[in-house]
Amino acid sequence: MWPDRAMARVVVRCHDPSMRTPQVRAGTRRAPTSGTIRLEGLRRDGSEHRRSSRGVPLLLLTVVVVVALASCGGGEPPAAKGSPPPGPPAATASSSGLSKGRSIDDKFVVAAGGRRLALACWGEGSPTVLLETGGTNIEQWAGSGMVTQLSSRTRVCTYDRAGTGTSDPPPNERRDADDAVGDAHAVLEAAHVTGPLVLVGRSFGGMLVTHYADTLPRDVVGVVVLDTPAPSAEFTEESEPGLVWDNPDNTEHLDVVHGFENRFATSPPHIDVPLLLITPIPGEASAEDESFWLQSSPQARQVTLACGEEPSEGPCATAVADFVGSLGTSTQ
Q: What's the pTM value of the predicted model, to 2 decimals?
């Protein structure tokens, strides 16, 4: 996992009273899982810090946050385009019982050898909305305004990627966007969560959902890219050692430099379904920077919204719910 901008902003808030808020962003409401990196980089527009912050290990970042608060006083890649990867073994749920209103709350086998991923869903109906972010997905999305608004209309799901949350570790090998998308597809298939699908990706998750829609378009009817800066062609393993797949803190073993940033900067995903690009204010980048994603779909449009301190709440959550409703595929 990688640090979202909320964590880093804690330091700023402590030294600037005007920026202090009683609650950090929803993505950091709970104590983050230790020993991992969060894939939500600090992708700040026009800042050199943006080019290195995604490599900050979470343990180091947690120390920074704690000190700052104290100072304030208080598998296989997918098959050919359009074809799902080989089906996983029969799903074996390891459930501790449904919790917090979830319609699904289990772990499912996604690969030979029994590797399992945790999946959580809320609500019922169609389409199914799949939420992605750069951190521990279930922890970050549970209880958010996004889930609350969407689950009242349809089914909304998220999952913990390999090596995050309560999911099993990934294979000890280099993994890229194909492997991450293959896992996402496999956990939905194992849980019998069928299309149509609307994919919503926040920050780093924007790269994941656009690639999913590009490589496995059959069931995808819409995509939302939320606060995702343009990928970087300038990242190298030398400049970003924390993003190398075998970095000890990179528990997902994702090759973020070559398998995501460089790849999509030079070869953007192309999809044939409506794409809503939401640039929140404040956000990780400017509207101009994030407009990179408009080229991904001929049916893309961009909106800029004042969503406050948490882009999964308020107007941003409402915009996503309205977009899902506009696709004309909703059933209860």
A: 0.76
